[in-house]
Amino acid sequence: MAKFYGKIGFVIPVEDPPESGVIVNKQIERSYYGDIIRNYRRWEHLQQVNDDINVNNEISIVADPYVNMNTPYIRYVIWNDVKWKVTGIDVLYPRMVLSIGGVYNA
């Protein structure tokens, strides 16, 4: 099983400036250790010139209190210098398994 060390991206809505009623998305990245428990890639053949790559990888990380409290805000994982969108989360305390899909565009 391959090891993982990388950043997980959280997108948290915050009011900026405070008490203004304007909500903006704040991106926070935190580093985590874990294991890559599934490593699978596939090409999506769409009606365009270049095919899209999708991964169906699963990364198991050691959960800390921050990730447990902010699970709904997890949006992407940086792996091999690419931001991959998180498509599913399985909480298996004390670990968390993140399923990742296509490239994260935001």
Explained architecture:
By secondary structure, the protein is mainly β. It has a single domain (2-103), classed as Thrombin, subunit H (Beta Barrel), CATH 2.40.10. The protein has one helix at 65-69; strands spanning 2-15, 23-38, 41-44, 52-55, 57-62, 74-79, 82-92, 95-103. It has a 6-stranded antiparallel barrel. The protein has a two-stranded antiparallel sheet with strand order 3-4. A hairpin with a 2-residue loop joins strand 6 and strand 7 (82-92).
Keywords:
single chain; 106 residues; mainly beta; Thrombin, subunit H; 1 helix; globular
Q: Helix content range of the residues, please?
A: under 10%
Question: How do the helices and strands follow one another from N- to C-terminus?
Answer: EEEEEHEEE
Large-scale geometry: globular
Give the helix/strand class. mainly beta
Distance between the termini: 31 Å
Query: How large, in whole angstroms, is the Cα Rg?
Result: 15 Å
Tally of alpha and pi helices = 1
Describe the main β-sheet briefly: 6 strands, antiparallel, barrel
- Given as residue ranges, the uncertain stretches (5+ residues, pLDDT < 50) are none
Shape-level CATH architecture: Beta Barrel
CATH class: Mainly Beta
* Count of strand segments: 8
Query: What fraction strand?
Result: over 45%
What's the layout of helices and strands?
Layout: E1 2-15, E2 23-38, E3 41-44, E4 52-55, E5 57-62, H1 65-69, E6 74-79, E7 82-92, E8 95-103
Antiparallel strand pairs: 1-2, 1-6, 2-5, 3-4, 5-8, 6-7, 7-8
